[in-house]
Amino acid sequence: MAEFLVLGAGMVGVSSALALQARGHQVTIVDRTGAGLETSYGNAGMIQVEAAEPYALPRDMVTLFKYAFEISNDVTWTLSGALQMAPALWSYFRHSSLEKHAKISHIHAQLTFRSTADHEPLIRDSESEHLISHCGLVMLHRDENEFEKAAKKAEFLLREYGVTADIFDGKSYQQKEPALKKAPAGAVHYTQSWSCASPGGLTKAYCDLFVKRGGRFVTGDASTLQHGVSGWKILTRDGELTAGQVVVALGPWSPELLKRFGYRIPMVYKRGYHGHFNAPNTLQRPFLDVANGVLAAPMRQGTRVTTGAALVPMKAAKNIKQLERGAAALNEMIDLGQKVDEPQWSGTRPCMPDMLPLVGAAPNHKGLWFHFGHGHQGFTLGPTTSDLLIKAVEGESSPLLEALSPVKRLAR
């Protein structure tokens, strides 16, 4: 049995703590706020089995032109953000070649395919079944040609990764989704994914389960982490804590902390926004409005609209133009109703240039473990990659662990 500090109380950090605890380790979670209050709070609430292939950076000139001039609502950017991330973006571009992306996807699919099964016991034990709907995720297409391409893509995902989907023409899907005001060109309904009515609530429920099982949660500042001959220490409201092992699960804040220990970790920071709306009709299932880069999902607070990526510095001022444009477009398809008056949320998805999370031992420090960089899938993959982290801690080896290990990837 070892003593661990887990830095970060998002889905990845809390899942790490639960997995370590289940193996008999003494674990303390340290976070500056509370469980599930930052990036894990504001995502689209999907456990995405269908996300076998991680989001690649487009390489065709037409799409890049649309991104550059923000004709598409999928991506916005600022010059300062692009310059700050330039090395990581260039690496992301290179890893997005057809050949490299295919290899990466065959690794990524091994994670997403088991995601619901890995969440299931935690959902049950935390008594969170009321938050989960096994309703799948719909890709809603307004353009007939794009819908035809999407239908072929669904056939490929079934053939290649075992991802199942139902294909509907627009009128047929409108009958399944009464909230639609008009028929789209068509819809691809990926059936294996689950939806959560409160992502932050589920993360907190997992954390409460961890504490109920004897774990400890304390408020502290990760930036005070120090390494000494006796292990690791950190300052918290409960005083200085020490442990022989530490897991860094701080999502987009991880690279900044690890700079102090000599690690230069390239990362693409994709900011997202959400807003809630008092829609008069509750959606039967979440859907992505593909043409406008926004996902609409039924949540406790109302219909949540979640945006794509804003490539901006971490400390950049909030700019909700993607959310406003996306909501206006959604109103053509569904009646969103009035926007809920609430503090404007934004969060950052921590994307590694090779589109895979870093899971495993730090290259140069004993007792330091990396567990971050999940991109769009931290909520989906927290329990899955935590299981792999345990295997790494226990000295196991496998091709999958090697693919996620920080050692070789940070040396590139």
UniProtKB/TrEMBL annotation:
Gene3D superfamilies listed in its UniProt record: D-Amino Acid Oxidase, subunit A, domain 2 (3.30.9.10), FAD/NAD(P)-binding domain (3.50.50.60)
Pfam families linked to this entry: DAO
Keyword Oxidoreductase: yes
Keyword set, alphabetical order: Oxidoreductase
Keyword Secreted included in the entry's annotation: no
Domain FAD dependent oxidoreductase: 4-389
InterPro entries (UniProt xref): FAD-dep_OxRdtase, FAD/NAD-bd_sf
Protein name: FAD-binding oxidoreductase
